[in-house]
Specification:
Elements lengths: L12 H9 L3 E5 L5 E4 L1 H6 L13 H6 L5 H6 L4 H7 L11 E6 L5 E12 L5 E10 L1 H25 L1 H4 L17 H18 L3 E8 L4 E8 L3 H9 L6 H4 L2 H8 L4 E4 L17 E9 L2 E10 L8 H30 L2 H45 L7 H35 L8 E4 H15 L5 E6 L6 E4 L1 H18 L6 E8 L2 E8 L6 H4 L25 H10 L4 E6 L5 E8 L1 H5 L1
Parallel strand pairs: 12-14
Antiparallel strand pairs: 1-2, 1-5, 3-4, 4-5, 6-7, 6-10, 8-9, 9-10, 11-13, 14-15, 15-17, 16-17
Helix pairs in contact: 5-6, 5-14, 6-8, 8-12, 12-13, 13-14, 15-16, 16-18
């Protein structure tokens, strides 16, 4: 949670009248911090029946009885990029704000933003303090849900990234006769899968069941949100029931046809002695098909019957399950190849399916990201029109609303760049990277990239030195990829050097090769790190400097090297610690290609 001191700002009588009539809660205290006024919205928020009950009370004592302790506040803190999406402007929105979790006598909990500003009389003496409480509970809870989903998704991806190590385990042939979903690596991935689904849908519990041959016995594989006792019970009954004993004919037909099944709890038929979770009011079953065969299914229990499951929620679950199935398919290939001893072929299949997963995951991430970015851009356009219609007094409000929108778009662009890097890496690993080669002018590409960086950071100085008398340096290249390399070099240089020092870009032509270098005057790169900065997933260079808080997959310089080498060029770096760094790349010019 943010903790910032109250600023010393004045508030006009007109603004004070607006505060009294606003839907936000307002408390006014005198110079001794005793409460002298409280509006109706604040009385309702704090569950106080009349103003006289709190008038004369010290403001901080009054607020303290509602505040959660620091540990509880920290437990529900949001990451900065999510926080910027839910904070919004209001009266005096240029003031720093705190976000607090409050608990009221009814045990209701609310998230509020708190802004405090000082009142001054005609002689500029402090006349009191105004505290404005804005309820953001619904937005904050959605943001917390998104944060849980994001973290759960990252955990799932991390688990998938370690699957190859677990696949080196030797599996007894007899274990394959049940279900490979019950093998240790599959169980580990299944646990991550049910955790992600529970966070996505915010439901009571999620369980994963495997179907074993030959009669279709049902086995418990993983669960999330269930007690240790319930989990033990499900393990004990594993294999005792057949699939057709649990599902009716119509529901079973839907699952076999790869269709989800939604049923109210009262409409479910359970085998004899089967223990039912009474909290669940509505069930959702999602099939898991491998090679057209039902290998297992997810059972999702939701307590809120009225809410049901939206189409978006179902599609999210199916998307996550599809990603997991790609990796589970690796297990099937491994099991089959283990019987014949063809381990090399199995590893090739694993690599192919892993790349399929990366491409699918990138697509699933990119689609909602595009929608989010579009919605924010629409909001900015609407805000621009609104600003022309409001009075001069409220223009500052519009400007302050723009700040979180701009910040949100910046973070969206950052995530968009990460997804593009992930797609490029998947293409390189699968050897499917395509280059669209055509004749380009390297000088023009450099000028365009520098101009774009200069527009993003007008306060920075970028110097271009063209060390050739030629007005055009022709190359045969994919202009988008070369521009991506230049942008990466420039971004790293700008983030690593002091704000008041220039970044120098130099172009030289020698022996039918063009050499581009980007020099910064930052702290340089330690000698022991210089040999690793081009490696895949290395973030040693990309996570230094003033912009170190930005997310990075550690793929930027690795992709630069891959792109340049596919253009028959080379890359390198020269750095003396304490004296900056120079990153360079070379490309053949068009004349050398013809020769």
């Amino acid at each position: 949670m943010q903790q910032q001191a109250a600023p010393e700002e004045t508030i006009s009588s007109n603004q004070l009248r607006c505060l009294k009539e606003t839907s936000d809660g307002v408390i006014v205290s005198d110079p001794k911090e005793q409460i002298i006024r409280i509006n109706a919205a604040a009385l309702k928020l704090f569950e106080v029946s009349r103003a006289s009950l709190c008038q004369g009370t010290l403001y901080h004592q009054f607020l303290h009885q509602y505040e959660m302790d620091d540990e509880q506040q920290q437990a529900v803190a949001l990451e900065p990029w999510l926080l910027s999406l839910i904070t919004e402007g209001g009266v005096a929105s240029n003031l720093p704000e705190q976000i607090k979790l409050l608990r009221f006598p009814s045990e209701q909990k609310s998230y509020v933003t708190l802004r405090s500003l000082q009142l001054h009389d005609a002689q500029k003496h402090v006349a009191g303090t105004v505290h404005v409480f804005h309820d953001i509970t619904r937005k904050y809870q959605k943001a917390l849900h998104l944060q849980r989903v994001q973290r759960a998704g990252l955990t799932l991806m991390e688990a998938i990234g370690h699957i190859s190590k677990q696949m080196d385990l030797a599996f007894p042939v007899e274990t394959l006769e049940e279900s490979f979903l019950l093998l240790p690596p599959a169980l580990a991935l299944g646990q991550q899968l049910v955790d992600v689904v529970r966070h996505v849908l915010d439901c009571c519990h999620v369980t994963l069941w495997a179907i074993g041959p030959p009669a279709g016995q049902v086995y418990f594989a993983a669960g999330s949100g269930i007690t240790a006792e319930a989990e033990q019970y499900r393990r004990e009954i594993s294999g005792r029931f057949l699939l057709h004993e649990i599902f009716g004919e119509s529901s079973l037909d839907c699952l076999l046809a790869n269709e989800v099944v939604m049923l109210p709890a009262d409409d479910m038929s359970y085998p004899p002695a089967f223990r039912v979770d009474v909290r669940v009011k509505q069930w959702l079953m999602v099939p898991l098909l491998l090679e057209g065969q039902l290998a297992g299914y997810l059972v999702i229990g939701k307590a809120d019957f009225a809410g049901g499951y939206t189409p978006e929620e179902i599609e999210l679950v199916r998307a996550v399950a599809t990603q997991a199935l790609l990796v589970l398919d690796c297990f099937r290939c491994l099991c089959e190849q283990a019987r014949t001893g063809s381990r090399a072929l199995a590893q090739q299949e694993i690599q192919r399916l892993t790349n399929d997963f990366l491409n699918l995951a990138s697509h699933e991430l990119n689609t909602p990201l595009t929608v989010i970015k579009g919605n924010m851009q629409v909001a900015q356009r609407r805000l621009a029109r609104l600003k022309h219609q409001i009075t001069e007094q409220l223009e500052q409000v519009g400007e302050q609303i723009e700040l979180p929108l701009a910040s949100a778009i910046q973070h969206t662009r950052l995530q968009e760049r990460m997804i593009k890097e992930l797609i490029d890496d998947a293409s390189i690993q699968a050897n499917t990277l395509e280059l669209h080669l055509k004749r380009c002018d390297l000088i023009a590409l450099l000028k365009e990239a520098i101009a774009r960086q200069q527009r993003s950071a007008p306060e920075r100085t970028i110097i271009l030195e063209v060390m050739t008398t030629e007005h055009v340096v022709p190359i045969i290249a994919d202009a988008e990829r070369i521009t991506q390399v230049i942008n990466t070099y420039l971004a790293n240089a700008l983030s690593s050097s002091p704000l008041d020092r220039p970044v120098t870009v130099q172009l030289m032509v020698e022996d039918a090769r063009a050499r581009v270098s980007v020099h910064d005057e930052g702290p340089g790169i330690p000698v022991e790190e210089q040999g690793h900065i081009w490696e895949r997933f290395s973030a040693s260079r990309e996570l230094t400097g003033p912009q170190a808080s930005e997310l990075s997959l550690g793929l930027g310089l690795y992709l630069c090297q891959a792109f340049i080498e596919r253009h028959h060029g080379s890359v390198g770096v020269h750095s003396d610690p304490g004296h900056g760094a120079t990153f360079w790349f070379t490309l053949p010019i068009e004349a050398s290609l013809r020769g």
